[in-house]
Design brief:
The protein is mostly helical and 136 residues long. It is built from six helices and no strands.
Length: 136
């Protein structure tokens, strides 16, 4: 048990500088990017989910932040489909944390996980909107 604790502490010690650098960079850029989210959507029903998924993938923060931003995007007239893709990829795709994920889980796993979550984020957003349209 003692060896497990020592190995865990060594892992955290190795991980902290990389995580600190990533978080610092993200926190410096995030306030500037969030103000421009609504302007990058085109109103195209086929292109906006892809844009939403891309923006969600590169964004970083706790999921509650994505809900607040999504509410603002909906107020700006961004489609529910694009906002759904945005929320899903924000929560499941971690481009910002990819270097850290690669160093601990391996390059192949990290890249495949992010690609699959990106694709399924768009697919689930489409299925969500189709389901909502069937219900209403």
């Amino acid at each position: 048990m003692k060896q497990v604790l020592i190995n865990t502490l060594k892992t955290y010690k190795r991980m902290l500088p990389l995580m600190f650098g990533i978080l610092l960079l993200i926190n410096l850029l995030s306030p500037f990017l969030k103000n421009y989210y609504a302007t990058i959507f085109t109103g195209n029903y086929f292109l906006d989910p892809l844009i939403g998924a891309l923006v969600g993938s590169i964004s970083f923060g706790i999921p509650i932040t994505s809900f607040i931003i999504s509410g603002e995007l909906l107020k700006e007239g961004v489609s529910l489909l694009a906002v759904s893709a945005f929320i899903l990829t924000w929560s499941t795709v971690g481009v910002a944390m990819l270097p850290l994920e690669i160093s601990f889980l391996g390059k192949r796993f990290a890249i495949y996980r992010n690609l699959i979550n990106f694709l399924f984020g768009i697919i689930i957003a489409i299925l969500t909107i189709l389901t909502l349209n069937l219900i209403t």
